[in-house]
């Protein structure tokens, strides 16, 4: 049953849900007030009947002899005419010790077993409900103060019941009208309250149709809907920035890939032309052919490296390895060992102090390999690339790589971490201009930052700061 209701509820629109919630809240309040009012009126009527019974019973029980002999005298005068007796209760009667009726109103009352026990002195009070002539009476029996016996008084409950029934019907009609009005008011309130949501929905749908991420959603006020609109605008700005970054990456990548692909295609076409026309083989001596093949191999390697770096830059968050606590000294040692094998002409030294960071070990190692590759590329034969790792204040790790190369020109320094940026001095050397961009991206993804600056007296200093675990 609960699942059916949950499924039905999920299929309702937000407008219907708000209307139902408002109606339900008002209905609960109206029914609660009606129930409390009905219970209060019932209790008041019950107390009134009880008070009337008690007062009449005390009045007769105080002077039972006068009520046995006849009606009590008037003030300072003779006894009243029996025709003007007041039917207390409106029914009453006086019982003797043997439970016989000594006197009573015109309409007598039944002598029940409980009344007999009161008359004989076995109990002091008996209250019960009896039915006379098809009507319900509340009857009270108490001992007589003088002469023994008991006094019975009964009051008709039918008028009270009729009053309570009419009151209940009026309350029910009021509840129905109140709940119906609450339902109508709830729909009006929901419609008015959802107007900003409808405007926001329309604006977002327009963005989805036009794909214009530069047009923000209009925001009015400072309420929750305005906050939602601000969040949507923030999301649109982030999507726009991501799309622009993707477009830039594709454009830059296509430009960078075009050069090696064009060179590879030209060289391959030359080799194929020689293979198809052997008479032209003398135009491509063996040493030129070998050089051409070496160039092809180098260009294919450059293209493979560029493709790998592009994949690294474009990698989605969901495809990355899980983060864990990593001892950064192990990552540095592994990266240094990899680069040392590739560049035996350069000396690599380290000064490492244990520091633990929370991150992705493979990405951190690739980041450091890119820094070391860049430092080794610019270092002269026999040069030294030094790597230092140490804590940097509370909660940070500091990784510094220095080389003894020519350094970075001041004009190029602000752009060294841009994608595909290559300094004038680097354009004649192998590389894609993505290595340091990957370094900056990886550092940012781990909550850190990277900076570049001059080394004293020569060379470059790359500093990476990461939050420690």
List the keywords:
469 residues; alpha+beta; 5-stranded antiparallel sheet; 5-stranded mixed sheet; 12 strands
Could you name the ranges where pLDDT drops below 50 across 5 or more consecutive residues?
A: 71-87
Class per helix and strand makeup: alpha+beta
Biggest sheet strand order reads 2-1-5-4-3
Order of H and E elements: HHHEEHEEEHHHHEHEEHEEHEE
Shape: elongated
Terminal Cα separation, in Å? 49 Å
Our estimate of the beta-strand percent is 15-25%
The biggest beta sheet reads: 5 strands, antiparallel
- Helical fraction equals 40-55%
Radius of gyration: 51 Å
Number of helices: 11
Number of strands: 12
The residue-averaged pLDDT reads 80
What this model shows, in words?
- The chain is built from 11 helices and 12 strands.
- The chain has 469 residues and is α+β, with helices and mostly antiparallel strands.
- Strands 2-1-5-4-3 form a 5-stranded antiparallel beta sheet, sandwiched between helices. A 5-stranded mixed beta sheet has the order 7-9-10-12-11, covered by helices on one side. A two-stranded antiparallel ribbon has the order 6-8.
- Strand 3 and strand 4 (135-143) form a beta hairpin.
- The longest helix is centred in the middle third of the chain and has 53 residues, at 224-276.
């Amino acid at each position: 049953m609960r699942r059916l209701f949950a499924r039905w509820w999920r299929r309702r629109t937000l407008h219907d849900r708000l209307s139902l919630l408002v109606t339900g809240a008002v209905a609960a309040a109206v029914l609660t007030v009606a129930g409390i009012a009905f219970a209060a009126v019932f209790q008041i009527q019950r107390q009134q009947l009880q008070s009337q019974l008690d007062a009449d019973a005390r009045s007769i029980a105080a002077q039972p002899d006068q009520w046995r002999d006849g009606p009590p005298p008037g003030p300072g005068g003779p006894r009243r005419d029996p025709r003007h007796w007041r039917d207390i209760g409106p029914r009453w009667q006086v019982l003797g010790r043997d439970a016989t009726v000594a006197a009573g109103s015109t309409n007598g009352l039944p002598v029940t077993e409980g009344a007999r026990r009161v008359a004989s002195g076995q109990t002091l009070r008996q209250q019960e409900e009896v039915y006379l002539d098809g009507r319900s009476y509340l009857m009270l029996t108490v001992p007589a103060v003088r002469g023994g016996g008991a006094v019975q008084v009964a009051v008709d409950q039918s008028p009270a019941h009729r009053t309570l029934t009419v009151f209940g019907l009026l309350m029910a009609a009021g509840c129905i009208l109140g709940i119906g009005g609450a339902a109508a008011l709830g729909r009006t309130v929901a419609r008015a309250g959802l107007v900003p949501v409808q405007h926001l929905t329309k604006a977002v749908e327009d963005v989805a149709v036009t794909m214009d991420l530069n047009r923000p959603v209009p925001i009015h006020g400072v309420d929750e809907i305005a906050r939602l609109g601000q969040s949507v605008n923030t999301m649109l700005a982030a999507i726009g920035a991501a799309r622009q970054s993707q477009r830039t990456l594709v454009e830059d990548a296509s430009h960078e890939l075009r050069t090696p692909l064009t060179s590879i295609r030209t060289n391959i076409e030359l080799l194929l032309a020689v293979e198809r026309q052997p008479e032209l083989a003398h135009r491509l001596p063996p040493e030129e052919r070998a050089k051409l093949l070496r160039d092809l191999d180098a260009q294919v390697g450059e293209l493979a490296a560029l493709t790998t770096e592009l994949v690294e830059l474009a990698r989605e968050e969901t495809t990355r390895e899980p983060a864990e606590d990593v001892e950064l000294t192990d990552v540095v040692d592994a990266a240094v060992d990899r680069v040392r094998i590739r560049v035996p002409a350069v000396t690599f030294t380290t000064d490492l102090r244990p520091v633990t960071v929370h991150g992705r070990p493979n990405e951190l190692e690739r980041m450091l390999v890119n820094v070391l590759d860049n430092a080794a590329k610019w270092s002269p034969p026999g040069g030294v690339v030094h790597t230092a790792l140490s804590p940097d204040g509370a909660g940070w790790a500091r990784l510094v790589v220095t080389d003894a190369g020519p350094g970075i020109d001041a004009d190029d320094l602000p752009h060294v971490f841009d994608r595909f940026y290559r300094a004038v001095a680097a354009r004649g050397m192998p590389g894609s201009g993505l290595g340091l961009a990957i370094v900056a991206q990886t550092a940012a993804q781990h909550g850190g930052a990277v900076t570049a600056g001059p080394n004293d007296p020569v060379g470059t200093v790359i500093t990476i700061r990461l939050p420690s675990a």
